[in-house]
Amino acid sequence: MRKSNCCLLCLFPPKVRAFIGEQVSLKCSFKSSSPITESLTIDWTYRPATSGQMETIFHYQSVPYPTTVGKFKDRISWVGNVAKGDASIAIQSPVMSDNGTFICSVKNPPDTYHNIPQTMLIVTERGLSFQLTSAALLSILVFLPSVIVVTLLLVRMGRKFGVLKEKKKSGCKKSSIEVPEGTETDSCLGKLRNWCLNCVDTDEEDPY
User: Fold this and answer.
1) 120-132 pLDDT per residue, tens
2) Which helix (H) or strand (E) holds 45?
3) What is the DSSP letter of 143?
4) Sign of dihedral through CA atoms 55, 60, 61, 67?
5) Minimal CA–CA distance to 105: which of 182, 5, 8?
6) pLDDT tens track for 88-127
7) Which backbone phi and psi does 59 adopt, to 5 degrees?
8) CA-CA distances (angstroms) from residue 197 to 81, 183, 191, 206?
9) Phi and psi for 66 in degrees, rounded to 5?
């Protein structure tokens, strides 16, 4: 009994998410029971998510042949390697109207059987601007009040430090509020006067 040849294909993942304007790769890998030859062909077809007709967007046989017509014109590029069982393609600058089903079909004669896997492309906006706006709003609501409180505390501490510095520059002088009446000797002026009086007394007591 002759063993039947087969070509097993695997496309992963079944769903691919892409962002508007950013290149996306559509992966398709295959395994064949026969050696890879120039007879190997790869075809990618596209079916829109909305009602629409299927169209071939890529063909490969020895060399890649991206479509030259339709919505994918000049936007399909070959990123596969048949020697490694890779039949992947890439779509440049995807838009939301590209949403739909992509079908990868690989044939490698004399293999007589092959499955035809497919994947669904979902193109969306990245939403970076929204994320940045949310982050900015969170900063305003959470961090800004904290910054204001810290700033006020620093200003207050700075003022206190300035007052202490001015007092230090003025020496040990005390204000009239801090020094009660009758305690003049505790002030620098009082100490200076007592020192002078002691000097005079000492001069009078010295013998001739």
Assistant:
1) 999 999 875 445 5
2) strand 41-48
3) I
4) positive
5) 8
6) 999 999 999 999 999 999 998 887 667 788 899 999 998 7
7) -140, 140
8) 108, 17, 10, 15
9) -65, 155
- What pTM value is reported for the model? 0.59
Q: What is the pLDDT of residue 199?
A: 56
The answer to whether 119 and 105 have CB atoms below 8 angstroms apart is no
Helices (H), the chain: 128-138, 144-169, 188-205
> Which 3 state secondary structure label does DSSP give 37?
coil
Residues 6+ apart with CB under 8 A from 34: 5, 7, 108, 109, 110, 111
Report pLDDT digits (tens) over 122-169: 999 987 544 555 666 666 677 777 778 888 888 777 777 776 666 666
Judged against a pLDDT cut of 70, whether residue 81 lies above it is answered with yes
* DSSP type of residue 186: G
Torsion of CA 104, 106, 111, 112, to 10 degrees: 40
- For 7, the token pair is 């070509």
CA distances from 168 to 155, 156, 161, 163 (A): 20, 19, 10, 9
* Distance between start and end Cα atoms, the chain: 149
Q: Cβ of 176: how many Cβ atoms within 10 Å?
A: 7
- Return the pLDDT at 5: 54
